[in-house]
Amino acid sequence: MEQSILKSVKKVLGIEASDTSFDLDILIHINSAFATLNQLGIGPDDGFEIEDDDAEWSSFYGTDPRYNAIRTYVWLKVKTVFDPPQTSYAVEAVKEQIREHEWRLNAYRETTEWIDPNPPVIPEEEV
User: Fold this and answer.
1) Nearest-CA neighbor of 33 among 5, 56, 58, 14?
2) CA nearest 68: which of 26, 104, 96, 23?
3) Residue 2, exposed/middle/buried by CB under 10 A (0-12, 13-18, 19+)?
4) Does the pLDDT value for residue 94 go beyond 70?
């Protein structure tokens, strides 16, 4: 399986790896998807971006296969702005897939990395 983020996204978009004419556009959209994932709490705390085809998926989410949906999510996000579907029905279907991936990725992250936003306060006299 292709490990390069840019090359794999180009592949599912139907663009040959050797065709670099759309790389800047695709890179911008990939990085936008990573920014959204960061806001969901997925990926490195300080954010993540790629600049070329050297960056690999494992540098974003490690080797946990339960995060493989990130690849599909990034592709769907890129597709909606780079090569959107031609019908409103298809657009809505892609948007629904994106929402489902966001929910599932967020739900998985919460089960493994959840931090209580309101931790119990221990009174001073008990410390």
Assistant:
1) 5
2) 104
3) middle
4) yes
Q: Which two structure tokens, joined as six digits, stand for 85? A: 């579907």
Task: Give residue-wise pLDDT tens across range 26-62.
Answer: 999 999 999 999 999 888 989 999 999 999 999 998 8
The domain ranges of the chain are 5-114
Give the distance between the most distant pair of CA atoms in the chain: 67
AA letter at 32:
S
The encoded tokens of residue 86 equal: 């031609």
Mean pLDDT (the chain, rounded): 90
> Does the reported pTM lie above 0.90?
no
pLDDT at residue number 100? 96
Query: How many whole angstroms separate alpha carbon 38 and alpha carbon 118?
Result: 21
CB 74 within 8 Å of CB 5: yes
Supply the DSSP string of 44-80, one letter for each residue: -TT-----STT-BTHHHHTT-GGGTHHHHHHHHHHHH
Cβ-based neighbours of 67, under 8 Å, separated by 6 or more:
42, 61, 105, 108
